[in-house]
Design a protein that fits this description.
- The structure holds two protein chains of two kinds.
- By secondary structure, chain A is mainly α.
- Chain A folds into two domains: 31 residues; 229 residues, no CATH class.
- Helix content of chain A is 66%, strand content 5%.
- Chain A is built from 14 helices and three strands.
- Chain A has a three-stranded mixed sheet, sandwiched between helices.
- In chain A, strand 2 and strand 3 form a beta hairpin.
- In chain A, helix 3 crosses helix 9.
- The longest helix of chain A has 23 residues.
- Chain A is globular and about 80 Å long.
- By secondary structure, chain B is mostly helical.
- Helices cover 71% and strands 6% of the residues of chain B.
- In chain B, helix 1 runs antiparallel to helix 2, helix 1 packs antiparallel against helix 4 and helix 3 crosses helix 5.
- Chain B starts with a strand and ends in a 5-residue tail after the last helix.
- In chain B, 34% of the residues are buried.
- Classes of the chains: A mainly alpha, B mainly alpha.
- The interface between A and B is medium-sized, with 27 and 22 residues.
Chain lengths: 265, 145
Amino acid sequence: MKKILAQGSIIILLFLGAWFGLNQIDWVKIFKVEKITNKTEEKLGEFFLETFENSEEEIQNIHLLNSIDTIVNHICSSNNIDRESIKFHVFNNPEINAFALPDGHLIINSGLILNSDNQEELIGVICHEIAHIELNHVMKKLIKEVGLSTLISMTTGNSGAVILKETAGMLSSSAFDRTLEKDADLKAVEYLINANLNPEPFANFLYKLSDNEHEASEYLTWISTHPDSKERAEYVLEHSKNQSIYYESVLSSSTWEKMKIELNE
Amino acid sequence: MIQIKQFSYVPGEHESEAASSSYLMSLIAIIVGLPLPIVNLIATLIFYLGNRKSTYFVRWHCTQALLSQLSMLFINSIAFWWSITIILNEEVISNNYIAYLFVVIVFNLTEFITTIYSAIQTRKGIHVEWWFYGALTNLICKDKS
């Protein structure tokens, strides 16, 4: 019996030893794994962005873009996020919506900015979408919904325009699953607190928009695709509690107002 | 690694054939069942159950084949599900994963070659005992006569 145990232990040790030994080699670098994965995501990001650019008008107002850039810069620098990894685009669309595309493209609709009562509400939604990007939720969702083979065929140009358009529609109009949404919400709260920004308006935004009486309810894409808004608002508030820090604003109130006026024009 | 030993009796032609088939069974199932790690175990298990009332020589080799498949199932299942989580993008390809795959491939290859060798030897009526598995089989499989 002792002999069997000794021999069994040797096999296990041999297995673990070989695994540990081979683990010391940088296989990811040798096989250029990251390069291949990043290229697929980069191409997908370009394809989807192009689809939206073809159907919607991208806003080029310098003041507006600079203001959003200030917000994104502030969030990234306070949370050690590589600023280059987030590429935001503002589209002229009345729907209250923002969503993430592969390769860090963040789409913000003008409807979201116009319907945010204050900058913190908008920043909360931006943080939520940045969290989806940073937690790699976009590629996870795409692979789950569309399948890896279809995604690869998209990047190699063998896929039809119909699939591309349908997938783009799915990214902009359907939520991630419940767990991923909660992860992104909690990450957003973390980003906001690290950036000295008050997370409460983000929770208020969820509360406010979950109310069907809201005047812009016909354009409430972001909230209708993100179920259980009241529950989400509650745990956002719960995680914002007991944070005895001094909150600040990223934009001055005049800049925020100017942004809205320019969008209304 | 493999030892040729004297069995308690000289197996007949029919017994050698059945014992050899127990190894062949897992080999055929590996080809059919790739990449599902469970298929070869099921094939070996069915063959084992079919021969558990057979002669000592046949039972002994069926048990050795089954035990080796069981341990392979364990490491192959980890590799299989790890790969699935990567395909579903729950996990990323890491050095840890690639190193694990290499070790699993080496262990599977060793088992594959050992199985072929054992199938050939037992077909000739030669009794082969694998390192660790042979001793474990001796512990489990007893001569009823």
